[in-house]
Design goal:
single chain, mainly alpha
């Protein structure tokens, strides 16, 4: 499980740097301010969630030899896959909108935003559950 998140984070991080540089140096003269803003917004959300996925992957790898209930692994999967889906739907819909002008791509953007929220909500739930379990 952890390796999938680390692999996705590594690929996503590579893409952020490569596409960010390409957008800044190769696309800037050809795109409007609004199009560049969409790309910038997509890159920011992608990078933040790439770092979060990286941390999640490291956590899972560091704790993989511990005896944990299956529900914890399920929760961590919800977090990681939600963030990955969020990156793909939110950020890539903004990139596609900026580069192609296909307006229907904006329908994927809120799906990605909801996926981000599901991942963060799952993290909140697991954190509170673990905190209450430690007290009791």
């Amino acid at each position: 499980m952890g390796n999938r998140f680390l692999i996705f984070a590594a690929i996503s991080g590579f893409f952020c740097v490569a596409f960010g540089a390409f957008a800044a140096h190769g696309l800037e003269p050809h795109l409007s301010f609004l199009q560049l803003d969409w790309i910038d917004k997509g890159l920011k959300y992608q990078f933040f969630h790439t770092l979060a996925l990286f941390a999640l992957g490291l956590f899972v790898s560091a704790t993989q030899n511990q005896a944990v209930p299956a529900c914890r692994n399920c929760g961590l999967n919800w977090i990681g896959y939600s963030w990955a889906i969020g990156i793909l739907c939110f950020s890539f819909s903004l990139y596609g909108l900026a580069l192609t002008g296909i307006k229907t791509l904006v329908w994927l953007t809120p799906v990605g935003g909801i996926a981000f929220l599901i991942g963060w909500g799952a993290l909140v739930f697991i954190s509170i559950a673990n905190s209450l379990k430690a007290r009791g």
